[in-house]
Amino acid sequence: MGIVIETSIWEPSSSVFIFIFFSSFLLLSLFPFYLSKHAPTTKSSAFSDHPFSSSSPRFQLYFLLLYFLASVLEGLWSVYGEFELVYYGISKEDTVTFMLIGFGAALFVGSLLGLVSDLIGRKKTCLVFFILHLIVGILKMVAPSPSFWVANLCLSLATSIFSFSFETWAVVEHDKVDSKLGHRQDILNETFWLMTFFESASLIGSQVIGNWMVGGNLEKGIGSPSIAATLLAILGITCMSRHYDGTTKIMTFKDYRMSFSVYILGDRRIWLLACAQACLHFSIAVFWILWAPTLVADGREVFLGLIYPCLLGARMLGSTVFPWLINASLRTEDCLTCAFVVQALLLSIIAYDYEEIGVLVTQFSLYHACIGLILPLLARLRTMYVPNELRGGMISLSLAPANAAILFILMQRGYYRTIENSTMIVFAAVGLFMAAGCMEAFKGDMKEEPISTFKD
């Protein structure tokens, strides 16, 4: 007599998505009432008059639209990334090589793109982002067997540009008007958390678009997302070419080098900010490399397609907490320290024991909720202490140590098999504890006045 063992694929309950949506909506809808009671003198804070209240509302809406398009492009290629590689006959060893080349390009080329962005202009660099995605889209549409090596290189450079160019462009453009009216920081705070919110929402949207275009036939529709990516890239290039020239005073290389040495390399506070940013970037990269293998460990079956939007929804929820904390007069450094410690503890628990799938997903969601809060908080500190003229170079260089660390552990894990997945997660947790320590040290250097720009 045979024994039949029933198996089931784990998937999150629909109530989870309802909770995330309702909580985000509740936080956004109640914030104006909180602001009117606890901050009656604030005229330019987020939601004071309108969800996009700004002295330059047209640019803010225009910028968020472009940022939404860019985020969709970033997420569209990853919907069927691994399946696409398998479909075209790419082995697991070559997949590891692809990842090494991608992070290598981000380390050796992407780290310098921020410096180039400061010298040639932020808007031009954002335009290059859309052009790179257009090249990849056309390449995959035209070539029957596309060159994944070229596509991988272009997408890695585009991701590097995405990490700094849009933020620096938004800050410079807002400064043209808002700094003259005396509420620069309030407007930028609003833009920062909306960027995180829109990015998370657009990544979910890219998954919907990719699944819709591929349909039920994966083999015939595997190239369909390339069509959507090409159209979105063309739309982005068109929008950026027609509006907001974004012209700013550009320094010579000699002046830029001298200013960078004085205001960035010579300021201990900037080093601490850069270290915290690098640790966060490293932990996020490790998470996205290992989250699926961790869930399916020991042969467990999981519906990853429903867990992915759950994680991004948690990040959206975390971003909506940002304006509450800022207007509650809490110190940015204290909020960052607490968020980093929570993230580190969560990863430490995950590394120690895989646990049940439901518990893991809960921990993953809390981790991403902290990301949604940390990203605008770090951007806020950069606005207070990093000169706009040097912002792109500072951000891109701060990610170089993280990319180098990722290259190292990928090589050890992918080729030599000397590092286990749990060890990689421990490294990410240690990095987050280091980030919390950087924020504590940062508070000790608060006696000096913050600088947001400089004069020649």
UniProtKB/TrEMBL annotation:
Transmembrane feature ranges: 16-35, 61-80, 100-120, 127-143, 226-244, 270-291, 303-326, 364-381, 393-411, 423-442
Coiled-coil segments on the chain, per record: none
Listed InterPro entries: MFS_trans_sf, MOT2/MFSD5
Gene Ontology molecular function, alphabetical: molybdate ion transmembrane transporter activity
Domain of life: Eukaryota
Keywords: Membrane, Transmembrane, Transmembrane helix
Gene Ontology CC annotation, any one: membrane
Entry keyword Transport: no
Record Gene3D superfamilies: MFS general substrate transporter like domains
Pfam families given in the database record: MFS_5 (PF05631)
Protein name per its UniProtKB record: Major facilitator superfamily (MFS) profile domain-containing protein
Organism: Gossypium mustelinum (Cotton)
